[in-house]
User: Fold these one by one.
Assistant:
Number 1:
Amino acid sequence: DHMGPADFAPGAGIDVRPHPHTGLATVTYLFEGEILHRDSLGTVQAIEPGDVNWMTAGRGIVHSERTAPELRRTGARLQGLQTWVALPKKNELADPAFSHHPKATLPRISAPGLELRVVAGSAFGKRSPPPVFTQTLFVGVEIDAGRAFELEAEHEERAVYALEGDVTVAGTPLPPQHMAVIAHREPVEVKALTRARLMLIGGEKTDGERLIWWNFVASSRALLEEAKLRWREQRFAHVPGDDEFIPLPEA
């Protein structure tokens, strides 16, 4: 999901009440603003621009995402991405976990008019600290008009998402808030027509089909139904200090 860009007036902000996840990892990466993360492990962590939160749901985790009280008083701007990563079958019932990685810990590749930051996984000879389970491509790019770079073919699946600005991918125009999925496993040129902000997304194919229902991801219908029942009966762990919750959708 691409959040924003959104401007919140004083007194307003985001309030994503406690809700569950299973069978996946969420990757939250901000460009502007701040989000206060709380989860059922007892984590309380603010994420700021350039930081990354990696949350492994495994057999089940609950979290909330809100605007901190001090920012709510003054108003704030928010923009970021939250990406879901399906866990391999052998890890989909793993213990839940959370890790926060400040901007300064993420590898950076710089050249005139071009900056790439490896947010998760590996790319361009660099490896990022979040605990990925399979080969992963998740790289933030800021690029000036007229500059270009080659996206190598080391990852099985690759895509380019344009947050801002106009670019071409292998000569094909890619407008803002669109994604280009690269079907062939060959290096491709990414070129900026205007100053642009991009994300490179991809990695290893999943080991079989995945089912998605609401916030649950699973390799079988039985695991999905079990997760739904556990949330309906409130058998997930609670988020300390945040007593609200989002009920299970009926549809």
Number 2:
Amino acid sequence: MPKIGILFLLLALPIALLQSCSDQVGQRRTYVLTTGTTGGTFYPVGVALSTLVTAQPRAEFSLTAISSAGSMENIKLLRDNQAQFALVLAIFAAWAYEGEGPIRSPQSNLRSISAMWPNVEHFVLHSDLVTTGTVKDLDQLDGERYVLGARNSGAEHTGIYILEALGIDYLSKFSLGHMAYGASASAMQDGNIVGMNVPAGPPVTAIT
């Protein structure tokens, strides 16, 4: 299970957010924290964070956690100011800040608030297809249906990044499906796919 990096809590800083909260006398502003799919780790952690912040009586703002497709969508939501805080994989934060990888336009207004936890890329495969117990087993697939993640999600992009770095031609080896974590887990249980990619901090509800 390769580690793809650290998960960060990011803040987007449009000019309006640079104003002191004291400018909003007597008002408690509400900001949006975008997380990930409900079957991963981002969402429950985001809900816990928003609950803790909002429960503080002296806090000058509150947070509302929302689900999303993960890091890739979260970067877009920050860019469009539909969310002001986000849980994002470090590699996506770097891509977004520099305008590299799948993110073409630099977002230099992003700021990291805190590192959260080391993130692990879980490449899950049906036991009948496991021979080495390593990522090499993915290279032995021959057209079986495998899910790297929801379309244009963080899971899909990090999965592609790792497989390409390892020299695995996933386009010829897999029949690619695109689903979120929960749907992928159900499809695997039903025998509709042979495996799935789940980047998240363990334990992951979609796996356990």
Number 3:
Amino acid sequence: MQRVAIDAVARESGKHGKLGALRRQGFIPAVVYGHGMVPMSVAVPVRAFERVRRTTGESAIVELQFEGDKAITTVVQEYQMNPIRDTYTHVDFLSISLDEPLTSRIPIRPIGTAIGLKEGGVLEHSLYELDVQALPLDIPEYLEVDVSDLGLKHSIHVADLKLGDKIKVLTNEMATVFSVVAPAVEEAPPVPEEGVVVEGAAPATGTAPAAGTAPAAVPAEVAPKTVSKK
């Protein structure tokens, strides 16, 4: 996991009005908890947090830097956003130790071109994230999986992934990550034989209805809509 630093300030737990004023000043209200510490209300600059999210994605070790050289090592546990403005409204930071295993979820990305595509197949990406446990600095930002040798009707499962001895995989090893499948073929509707009446179809012009069938109904004339003007 990449390690980044963000300036943070302690704040008092306030009401909604105080939190709104804090956001207007360019800060995101946040809380830090975990690893035996008493939950602490803090605030971080919105631009600094957005920059971290853009450059490190979902997984990063965030060092919250306070005045007086105080720092807390954390990861982003959860965040909330305004669905209309698409802005951050609150962040939960989880305090961690670099010497203790951490459970995390890392993205999975394909690299290469599967040989099965040349055979007319389609690459399906079934599992997008992998649950793992390891020391924080041993957890990768993402996992690249080479699909070059994947042929038609073949799959890559979690058990096939190589992450080394330092990382424990928590996801079911039988779960499918990638597979190359044959493209779906749409069946053409059946063509009726000559002289066979298809249910629901109107008889051809100039021909009588088939025996035992009622003649097609003639739609009634639609009355014009009248609009009164006063």
